[in-house]
Amino acid sequence: QVQLQESGGGSVQSGGSLRLSCGYSGYRYVSYCLAWFRQAPGKERDAVASVDSNGTPQYGDSVKGRVTISLDEKNMYLQMNNLKPEDTAMYYCAAVGGTLCGGWWARISAYNYWGPGTQVTVSS
User: Fold this and answer.
1) Are the CB atoms for 76 and 27 separated by under 8 Å?
2) Whole-angstrom distance, CA of residue 60 vs CA of residue 67
């Protein structure tokens, strides 16, 4: 049973930084793709970044240059710098096994495991 659990969310002022973590367990795949998504109230869930078991990162245009995704054996991380009020959202980690990330990485339907989310609030 694959389980994902986000942590590290909170409230910061504009220009501040946060580091989100996603603990994953129960994974038995050699290849896998992990990703961060976010959803603001009243908006669709959007892809933020992905990283696969090869360590290859991909980033959404809205966060490129401000975030860094990484992972180790038990956690995936999202370092977010220069946060803006428009980054306010619930952040979710997602996973799919048996494949590396590809050009489809931003597609919600590609992932079959999701965490419950962690809230990030950025004030101006």
Assistant:
1) no
2) 10
- What CA–CA distance (Å, rounded) separates 55 from 79? 15
- What is the DSSP pairing of strand 32-39 with strand 10-13? unpaired
Strands 118-123 and 10-13: parallel
Q: Is the dihedral of CA 62, 8, 111, 95 positive or negative?
A: positive
Structure tokens at 70: 């990484």
Say if residue 15 is exposed, middle or buried (CB neighbours under 10 Å; 0-12, 13-18, 19+).
exposed
| 38-97 residue pLDDT tens | 999 999 999 999 999 999 999 999 999 999 999 998 899 999 999 999 999 999 999 999
8-34: pLDDT as tens digits: 999 999 999 999 999 988 778 889 999
Spell out the residues 6+ positions from residue 42 whose beta carbon is closer than 8 angstroms to its own. Answer: none
In the numeric block, which tokens belong to residue 13? Answer: 């002022």
DSSP symbol at 80: E
